[in-house]
């Protein structure tokens, strides 16, 4: 795309409802899908991007793998892991992706609940990152479930309300709808349906608060799930009192850092799609996000240490597993913390971005450690997932990246939709005079 | 003093028993016993009673106190030191073939006195625990088919002989 | 700008969400401590009696109509490996060389916990603890998340991974359908030549087990495994050596597995009831002075 635009500087990339800077005829849906290019031009620019060839190669191998998994059964892909029933599909796909998607509720609540309207240029990216992460976590879940066509059973057929997973299922389902509603504003703008947009905007605060509730609970619940296996997970990664806190608290920097990473990739690889507001405010916003993330990380570090102290598990630190634990904490938390705080202090966005990478790696590593690597540690061997399982994960993740990119190309996430709908005023901050009596009244 | 008394009793008992055994060979004590009442998967056992008597001498090893022999187990001796010979001496006289039916369980629970006999094994276990336990100690045969050959329905159950799995044995998928 | 009406709408939206999900928290808390059904049956397994004949495996295979085994049931070469239960074998016997010449065998199958972890972790309620003591499974509702396999402290449930259309969790069901519900002992107990397994009311078996320990001084370690483990199991064990040496987790917790999860479950109603009010309140405070600077970091509200 970059190359194409360099060669065709006069191309109109769709950023409004109508042609010629919102003055001509409205764009058709097909035109919108091809970004205003002709299909031929679009294909040509896609073919010239080497990354697309990598994706094509992955899909060529991976899609038949996914199909084969459903035709020949789960054992074709994952073998017969009786003792390690949850492999990469859940260990990475669900437990790894969901914390990195907490950005949706955090940015949503920062803007709508805490009134931090300075985050608005990146709010939509945060929310999109949230919904895509959850959506693909569900895709991974579908790959993993023995009978994915029964996924709605916990909602409509048979209730097991005593189970943590029941809570997770309900929350993820509800939260996906909440996020769909939050993301839909961008979609409605793109489609040119201002009424839908206005309707959703009115619910913004409710949706944001619902997001906080649901996220607190299911991010924690993903950790609480591991408390069913007290003897199987290594004690350093297990704490019945703190497990849900570990997962919830680490999801906060995880989500924020994911937004830092994604926005960095976006601004580097699709500069043409980012508008000036986004580009100009990005460094400042990333540093602000890093502040939030480092607050989360320090809290996380403290409770991880308290967890070890609480059950007096210090002796384990001298074992091999202890070394691995120290690596996870040292690399994923302490190094990240150092990089992020150094970045904040020196206003160095490079350090912040580096720290964001180590943070998300640390969070994912933690999830893998809990559900895969240290699982059944007493058996003395680590369960290595078979090649087909790894390949399917790579494939689904590639589809995730491609979907992410496709949406960023089109919907007004990184740029402001040029067409102003009259309801846009909803976004403006409200005068203090109106809210003061309300605030007093609510006390 | 106590030990001397015990030795004396044991000695006298042994003499009496040998006497009794030789006396009774013609009177009620079977030389051969065919154990086949609970047979399902195996052919009946042709038990050479006489040979066992000859090599063990002590009836109490198998028959507890019921033959009138002195019991060695202090738990049994508490009540049965002087019980004398009982009218019923065969295993199946006391050990039931089906120990876990609701009725059998209730009977065990309700019996008086409510101790010791509660843990009485069923007939099949009475045979096996007694025979196999002794065989292991004394170097007797211990394989299943050393005492009773498996019949056709047994082969079918064990998936052995002509019922053996046709597929080449592949390594177990389960691992630890 | 958010008008009062919209604000109320927002609160309502939160309320509805909370109501939808509060079922989860509410019922979860109802799971208190459960002493077990009074007439639940159980099995007392005496490891010292087992001779490793594998009759129980054969009987189980026939009773549950399981697929043909890889090797005949009288083949003792299987003892080379430590096996576990699979979808083809609901019970397996493993061999343990515990001393120079002493060999113990340990039969493994579902222990039918009083408060089963599989049951409490199942989000479609596929498991039932029957009043007879069996933990049975409803294949019709199972989604295949395999949380029960993660949760089972004994690593018992297996999954028929190879079935594309109807993969199921498979484990011993105490022969519930064919035997237990009519008061009969399971097939493995019935066939055992040594009566390694004593079938009876769980409450009676606890007494019996302790009596056996007491009546045979020095023969057994003074512990009835399963009397207390993870809240008690219907299958209990006697051994002449430490349970760790014969494939048991000797340090297993006495509290039911669900008790580990209660810390989190207790937190659920709090979040559901306090968060909506808390954060709408925070919103009002945070947006009061629109132009002022807010020093707090977004997103961090722990």
Secondary structure layout:
The complex is a heterotrimer of chains A (443), B (176) and C (302).
Chain A (H helix, E strand, L loop, with lengths): L1 H6 L11 H4 L6 H5 L5 H9 L2 H23 L1 H5 L9 H4 L5 H4 L2 H10 L7 H25 L8 H4 L7 H28 L2 H9 L1 H21 L18 H27 L6 H35 L9 H26 L3 H25 L13 H24 L21 H11 L1
Chain B lengths: L1 H23 L7 E4 L9 E4 H8 L3 H4 L10 H7 L10 H4 L7 H9 L12 H16 L5 H4 L4 H7 L18
Antiparallel strand pairs in B: 1-2
Chain C lengths: L3 H27 L10 E6 L8 H9 L28 E6 L5 E6 L8 H5 L5 E3 L5 E3 L9 H5 L6 E2 L9 E2 L16 H5 L5 E5 H14 L19 E4 L19 H8 L2 H19 L16
Parallel strand pairs in C: 1-9
Antiparallel strand pairs in C: 1-8, 2-3, 4-5, 6-7
Helix pairs in contact in C: 1-8
Structure description:
The complex is a heterotrimer of chains A (443), B (176) and C (302). Chain A is mainly α. Chain A has 20 helices and no strands. Chain A has helices at residues 2-7, 19-22, 29-33, 39-47, 50-72, 74-78, 88-91, 97-100, 103-112, 120-144, 153-156, 164-191, 194-202, 204-224, 243-269, 276-310, 320-345, 349-373, 387-410, 432-442. The N and C termini of chain A lie far apart (54 Å). The longest helix of chain B is centred in the N-terminal third of the chain and has 23 residues, at 2-24. Chain B is built from nine helices and two strands. In chain B, 47% of the residues lie in helices and 5% in strands. Chain B has a domain at 90-164. With 176 residues, chain B is mainly α. Chain C has eight helices and nine strands. Chain C is globular, with a radius of gyration of 25 Å. Chains A and C meet through helix 5, helix 6, helix 9, helix 12 and helix 14 of A and helix 1, helix 3, helix 4, strand 6 and helix 7 of C.
Number of helix segments of chain A?
20
Largest interface: A-C, 104 and 93 residues
- CATH architect. name of chain A: Up-down Bundle
Ranges of chain A where pLDDT stays below 50 over 5 or more residues in a row are 423-443
Helix content of chain B: 40-55%
The count of domains of chain A is 1
Structural class per helix/strand content of chain A?
A: mainly alpha
Give the N-terminus to C-terminus distance of chain B in angstroms.
58 Å
Main beta sheet of chain B, described? 2 strands, antiparallel
Strand content of chain B: under 5%
Q: How many extended strands of chain B? A: 2
What is the residue-averaged pLDDT of chain A? 88
State the distance separating the first and last CA atoms of chain A.
54 Å
Provide the spatial order of strands within the biggest beta sheet of chain B.
1-2
- Radius of gyration of chain A using CA atoms only: 23 Å
Radius of gyration of chain B: 20 Å
Per the CATH scheme, the topology name of chain A is: Formate dehydrogenase/DMSO reductase fold
Level-1 CATH class name of chain A:
Mainly Alpha
- For this entry, what is the oligomeric state of its chains? heterotrimer
- Helical fraction of chain A equals 55-70%
Low-confidence stretches of chain B: 18-26, 171-176
